[in-house]
Each structure stands twice: as C-alpha cells, then as structure tokens.
Amino acid sequence: MDWIAIVSGFGVGAVVGLTGVGGGSLMTPLWLSVFRLSPAVAIGTDLWFAAVTKTVGGASHHQAGHVQWRITALLLAGSLPASIATMALMHATGVTTRWAAMLTFSLGIALLLTAVTVAYKQVWHAVGLRLERWISKSRRPWLTVLCGLVLGVLVSLSSIGAGAIGATLILLLYPRLGSHQIVGTDIAHAVPLTLVAGIGHATLGHVSWGLLGSLLIGSIPGIWLGAHLTRSLPESLVRSLLCLALLSAGLKVTF
Fold first, then answer.
1. Three-state SS string across 114-143, please?
2. Is the pTM of this model over 0.85?
3. What's the domain range around 143?
4. What gap in Å lies between CA 190 and CA 186, rounded to an integer?
5. Which of 69, 83, 112, 152 has a CA that sits 20 to 30 A from residue 189's CA?
6. Taking each helix axis from N to C terminus, what angle separates 140-158 and 97-119, rounded to the nearest 10 degrees?
7. Number of folded domains that form the chain
C-alpha cells in the first residue's frame, strides 16, 4: 500500500508540476477510492500534504518577491478565524454521521468548483477587469477578508480550495497583479491556513501519517518531472484532462 501511495504521489506531483494546481483536488479522491480512508482522514491527511509542499513553494516565491503580503494578511484575517471556528465546531459536536455527510458533500462541491476555475482560467482575468468598475479601493480590503472567510470554511471542510479557487478569487479582486504575484500570494496564504486546519484535524485523529510520508516521497520527483514536461506538452491538453478528472471525481463524490 505504501508503494501505491508513492506512485500516486508521483502522478499527482507530475500534474501539479504541469499545471500548478490539482494536488489536493486529485489526491483526496484517491485517498477515498484507492486507500479506502474515511472522508475526514482523507481531508486531514491532504491538509498536511498541502502544508508541507506549499511551505517550500511559499519560501521560493517570497525570495523571488512574488508575494503581496498585504493581500495575504487580509485573506488570513478572514480564513484563519473561519478555520478555527469550523474546527472548534467539529470538536464540540464530534464527527457524527451528519458531519461525515457534510464533509463528503463539501468535498464534491469543492472538486466541481475547482474544475470550473481550471477550465475557465483565461476568462477570470477579463471578468476581474470588468469588476474593477464596481469594486472601489475602499471596498477591496473587506471583500478580500470575506473571500478569506469563505476559503477558510471550504478548506477546513474539504482540504480543497486554497489553490485554484483561492488564486481565482485573488485574480477577480486584483486583476492588475502579474501571474507570478497571484500564485505567490495564493501559496503564501495557503501555508498557515492548511497548517491550522491540519492541526485541527490531527487533534481529531484525522491524519494517516504513514501514507502522508509515502505520498511526499513520490510527489517531489513528480513535481520536478512535471515542471520539465511543461516545455513539451500543450497546457490546454493537460488542463482539459485535469478538468475531466476533477469533474468525474466531483460528480462521483457528490452524487
């Protein structure tokens, strides 16, 4: 089973290296279908995977000057309290059958939302430019906090959303940012959010540490290979395949 996790991690890492998204979106369904983990354990394990891998990526983007720390702080002002409140509610009520059903449903919805954001990546920039007419500079800060709140709940419940969905929300609110700044800011925000949510799930016993280690062993060379393959494979093909995988997984989990 550890070897299956290593191979799975390698495959998911290659997709992340090719497209920049899809880690949690693809890995969590594998935890459910291949490794037969409960939704709660799959989500908790994936949060720790994201926290570890995104810490490395966040440090790299910080050194390159790609992180807009003011935007990151505003997002965290909404996402961290939302994540802590969500985990506190789970602690207080326990992981009942109703909570398990909510976790599964939120996972499916997050997968479908991620599929949409990946499929229409080029559209969001144009939408963000049009929204500039309605979003004044004075409104942007509290809208950023509100987006962080939504991401905090979604990530805590499903482990998905801090990547593609988070980057899309930043793009809609700040369409003038460069792509590297959007990615760097999104990753910098995801690190503390996934760590806080991951700690919350770990205290509930929702982490498979052995499988997590195997996944990380496979994902590192996979990401390296995927990053190099981007030069030879068309991005449109890879994104189309990723969207199909996310859509099928989301429909299966939700329905």
1. HHHHHHCHHHHHHHHHHHCCCCCCCCHHHH
2. no
3. 2-254
4. 6
5. 112
6. 120
7. 1
String of DSSP letters for the chain: -HHHHHHHHHHHHHHHHHHS--HHHHHHHHHHHTS---HHHHHHHHHHHHHHHHHHHHHHHHHTT---HHHHHHHHHHHHHHHHHHHHHHHHH-S-HHHHHHHHHHHHHHHHHHHHHHHTHHHHHHHHHHHTTT--TTTHHHHHHHHHHHHHHHHHHHS-STTHHHHHHHHHH-TTS-HHHHHHHHHHHHHHHHHHHHHHHHHTT---HHHHHHHHHHHHHHHHHHHHHTTTS-HHHHHHHHHHHHHHHHHHHH-
The two tokens of residue 146 are 């509100």
- pLDDT tens digits, 190-207: 889 999 999 999 999 999
In this structure, which amino acid lies at residue 112?
L
